[in-house]
Design a protein that fits this description.
Length: about 180
């Protein structure tokens, strides 16, 4: 009897050990899946946060024959419902001719067709700036491709270098207190 009872005890202990290991395995598997699920979700539309901008904005940008550094943290961006993005960042323009410095203030990258104050802009890499009441977009050869009237927002309490504000299915792109309306097509 002793040998039989001992054998039965071993079987019961083995059964409990296997059951515990199996449960632990499945709990860990479910926990891993739950942790990875949010990381695999598609990015949401709207104004991009600092972490996402840091991944997307280049450190240097080629424009008009010169590669200039992008000013860290002086950027803004938006992801449209189509998952396309618009990125803008201030650039160090100290090496450029005065005529370019007057118009070229920021890089302007988009992989979406845009309407800016009603005028169309194709996807591409551009330079932009607010000058004398106008918003100007230039190709990388510093040739004007778009020039539209800009607006001033004197009611804006705290002006920041660059930002987007959601408005009527589109966005306002601000540089200080100047802005233009931007909509994806």
């Amino acid at each position: 009897m002793k040998g039989g009872a001992c054998c039965l005890t071993r079987r019961v202990r083995h059964w409990y050990t296997m059951k515990t290991r199996t449960c632990a395995f499945w709990l860990v598997a479910i926990w891993i899946c739950a942790c990875l699920a949010p990381a695999q979700q598609a990015p949401s539309k709207g104004i991009l946060g600092p972490a996402e901008l840091k991944k997307l904005i280049p450190q240097d940008y080629f424009f008009a024959g010169i590669t200039a550094s992008v000013q860290p943290g002086m950027d803004a961006g938006v992801r449209f419902a189509t998952d396309k993005v618009l990125l803008v960042a201030l650039v160090n323009t100290s090496g450029y001719a005065t005529s370019i410095q007057q118009k070229y203030q920021a890089l302007f990258l988009t992989d979406s067709r845009l309407k800016i104050e009603g005028s169309q802009l194709r996807p591409g890499a551009y330079g932009c700036g607010f000058v004398s009441g106008k918003f100007i977009v230039m190709n990388v050869a510093a040739e004007d491709v778009l020039s539209v009237p800009a607006h001033g927002d004197d009611k804006l309490q705290r002006a920041v270098p660059l930002k987007f504000v959601e408005q009527d299915g589109g966005y306002r792109f601000y540089a200080g207190k100047n802005f233009v309306a931007v909509q994806p097509e």
